[in-house]
Amino acid sequence: MNEPFDFIEMKVPAKSDYVGVARLTASGLANRMGFSYEEIEDLKVAISEAITNTVKHAYTEEGAGEVTVGFGLYEDRMEVMIADYGDSFNLKSIKENIGPYNEDIPISNMKEGGFGLFLIDALMDKVEITNNNGVIVLMTKYLFENEVGRSDDQVSTTQ
Amino acid sequence: MNLHIDDHKNGDSSILKLSGEIDAYTAPRLKEHLLNLIEENKEVQVDMQQVNYMDSTGLGVFISALKTSKEVDKTFKLINLQDNVYRLFNITGLNEVIDIENTVRGGM
């Protein structure tokens, strides 16, 4: 496939300090592409969630690594790739924690984390996660949502 | 990309006015402030009118606040959420457990 696209890549230290910077970049690019206000808000949250996951799970030592954020700007969609090359991202435990609040769970057992990946899945049109030699989250948001079936809204995992 | 935290005491209740963004960077400071406030007051209202961005780290802070408020038998509620912020409580189902009072909720 020889689809034309622009690619923007940024590398930030895996620290929470820089999540906002990546979010602002995403917002600028999405605005440039013509996404609506609401869609831009969705993208900001999804991208922040993915980077926050990396910052929290992949690196245990302070300042131990970097997160690479790549934006692919296509005519009909934005693809965002978030990659870390740390070695301790526990995909299994993260996936077990995914889901909306379940009313059967008493408040005292509610987890304070775990909504991140659930939100990414809810706010983006397509999400793929690969976990070999570091974790890569690839997520897509389409510009013209009405022309694209929403049935492919899913998280797929290859390990 | 910062969060301003401002509290106003009114008898044994307190209003916490937030302004800015709640994310992984600002959430730890908010959590500490909010949990202390809940311990010290009978009722805490968090005014979110000036919060224009929040992600799941913010949800985490408010779940934590809810737990603490139940443990110490205090009241904790969120007021004046912007639509895009309220939406996250709605998607996750947390609007069912956290006391949220919205004057302008919008059609979500």
Helix content of chain A: 25-40%
Structural class computed from helices and strand pairing of chain B: alpha/beta
Strand arrangement, largest sheet of chain B? 1-2-3-4-5
- Helices and strands of chain B, in order, run as EEHEHEHE
Distance between the termini of chain B: 26 Å
| Euclidean distance between termini CA atoms of chain A | 25 Å
Describe it.
Chain A: It comes from Allobacillus salarius. Chain A: Residues 12-141 form the Histidine kinase/HSP90-like ATPase domain. Chain A: It is an enzyme of class 2 (transferase). Chain A: Its EC number is 2.7.11.1. Chain A: Keywords: ATP-binding, Kinase, Nucleotide-binding, Serine/threonine-protein kinase, Transferase. The complex is a heterodimer of chains A (159) and B (108). With 159 residues, chain A is α+β, with helices and mostly antiparallel strands. Chain A has one domain: Heat Shock Protein 90, CATH 3.30.565.10. Chain A is built from 4 helices and 6 strands; from the N terminus they run βααββααβββ. Chain A has a 6-stranded mixed beta sheet, with helices on one face. In chain A, helix 1 runs antiparallel to helix 2 (37-58) and helix 2 (37-58) runs antiparallel to helix 4. Chain A is globular, with a radius of gyration of 16 Å. The two termini of chain A are 25 Å apart. Chain B has a single domain, classed as Transcription Regulator spoIIAA, CATH 3.30.750.24. Chain B is built from 3 helices and 5 strands, in the order ββαβαβαβ. A 5-stranded mixed beta sheet of chain B has the order 1-2-3-4-5. The longest helix of chain B has 16 residues, at 56-71. Chain B is globular. The mean pLDDT of chain B is 92. Classes of the chains: A alpha+beta (159), B alpha/beta (108).
